[in-house]
Write a structure and sequence with these properties.
The chain is of the alpha/beta class. It has helices at about 75-85, 105-115, 140-145, 160-170, 185, 195-200, 210-225, 235-250, 260-265, 285-295, 330-340, 345-350, 355-360, and strands at about 1-5, 10, 15-20, 25, 30-35, 45, 50-55, 55-60, 85-90, 120-125, 150, 175-180, 190-195, 205, 230, 255-260, 300-305, 375-385, 405-415, 420-425. The protein has one domain (about 55-360): Alpha-Beta Barrel (TIM Barrel), CATH 3.20.20. The longest helix has 17 residues, at about 210-225. It is globular.
Length: about 425
């Protein structure tokens, strides 16, 4: 299909592109910027007047619930929800059922991605077999099957020797390791940040040391093994300090934060709202501000949705026994723009955190606008508002902590490889 995208403002921090110009697409790629090619007859003309054209968004972590948890969601529902926020590339963690620890499961995920044809899916393979933290997974075979990194998802590896060997194996395979840093013994099945709120509500608490001690252990092993490590979902200001110091010392690590931890704090669980039961927990305002500062000084390299759709029953019990996680994928872009509107980060920085920067972490050739490259694009209207209503979510999971929020910036079109996969026209 040939598409002419006219009158829009192109914004791509990776290529320092910030100007009004046309864009032309053919055979899934951008064939020209600004000047219409000779003999170019478009099949579709998109008028992007008064709108902003971005690279397709890259989400570092989203659970699509296949295979194994189809009652919570599936590729069809969750990828359509993702497209509504301009997302065209997604990294999925290995905690599916069965776990992504064999080439057969990797192929299943690739097959479902081809069938839905709504996003580029990049699976992470398991770091240990069945994510049990005991025997190393066959990382070489997982890489050959198409995994772009390895992770133990939310499951801690208590045995430090096993973790060290896992790092060495991953490094020999030239694979990045994605680490969710939490000491399970210190976390002790907690559900909320250790502080005044958890004490008042009588909820089992997770101190920030559950995160910082785990990060410190990993950093020491990174120095020893020279493996590439990415820290997932930082939640505390102290964790940001540790990563910042490590980077200054020349340790090459990266880190991200989930969108919930940039907007919400433990104050939001004060009425036992189980939609605010997330992992890592929402911490206090000082921590939230510390995360923002980490974004500003580039200690934190990316923001992810950490999308986890749940069925109603999973969130209907008392707070401490509900399942953690929030349905966030379809509002990733407007929530980032909300931080811009509050002057907490700049627009260029906000866009880079969900396009080119996560693409670099994943090692994929996405997240930018460039001639002769993939036409993965997002168009949004900065002058249109959206109202979040959990009952109208496109995701199968209605468990959003942002119900009732009014946000600015409505996605009007999403293109994947030059094909329109979402449009409100």
């Amino acid at each position: 299909m040939r598409i002419s995208m006219e009158n829009g403002k192109l914004l791509d921090p990776a290529n320092k592109l910030d100007q009004k110009q046309d864009l032309f697409i053919a055979d899934g790629k951008i064939v020209s910027l600004e000047k219409k090619p000779d003999d170019f007859n478009p099949d579709l003309v998109i008028n992007a007047k008064d709108k902003i054209v971005l690279p397709g968004l890259v989400d570092l972590c989203a659970r699509l619930r296949e295979p194994g948890f189809e009652k919570k969601g599936n590729f069809d529902s969750e990828l359509y929800a993702a497209n509504s926020s301009g997302i065209t590339s997604i990294s999925v963690p290995p905690d599916t059922t069965p776990v992504i620890d064999t080439p057969a499961v990797v192929e299943f995920i690739h097959q479902r991605a081809r069938e839905t044809n709504r996003a580029n899916i990049f699976p992470l393979g398991a770091l240990t077999q069945k994510l049990k933290g005991e025997q190393l997974a066959e990382m070489y075979l997982l890489k050959e099957a198409g995994c772009i990194g390895v992770s133990n998802a939310l499951n801690a590896i208590e045995n430090t020797e096993v973790l060290r060997r896992a790092f060495e194996y991953a490094n020999s395979c030239d694979l990045s390791v994605f680490i969710y840093a939490e000491d399970e013994k210190i976390a002790n099945n907690g559900v909320a940040h250790e502080g005044a709120i958890s004490a008042r509500l009588g909820l089992p608490a997770i101190p920030e040391t559950a995160e910082t001690i785990a990060i410190s252990r990993v950093l020491l092993l990174v120095e020893q093994t020279d493996v590439r490590v990415h820290f997932c979902h930082l939640s505390s200001a102290r964790a940001v300090d540790l990563i910042r110091t490590a980077k200054k010392q020349g340790i090459e690590v990266t880190a991200d934060v989930s969108i919930c931890n940039l907007h919400l704090t433990d104050m939001d669980i004060a009425d036992y709202d189980s939609n605010c039961h997330v992992k890592p927990p929402l911490r206090n305002e000082r921590d939230r501000v510390g995360l923002i500062e980490g974004i500003r000084d580039e200690t934190i390299s990316a923001v992810c949705s950490d999308h986890q759709p749940h069925e109603i029953n999973a969130k209907s019990a008392p707070f401490s026994i509900t399942e953690p996680g929030a349905s966030t994928i379809e509002h990733l872009l407007p929530l980032m723009l909300h931080l811009v509107n509050r002057n907490e980060i700049t627009l260029n920085r906000a866009i880079s955190l969900i396009t080119s920067e996560p693409a670099k972490i994943l090692g994929i050739n996405r997240g930018f606008i460039e001639k002769n490259k993939h036409a993965d694009l997002c168009i949004y209207d900065p002058n249109s508002n959206i109202s979040i209503d959990k009952n109208n979510l496109l995701s199968s999971g209605k468990n959003t902590p942002f119900n009732g929020w009014e946000l600015q910036g409505k996605v009007t079109h999403t293109l994947l490889n030059g094909e329109v996969v979402f449009s409100i026209d």
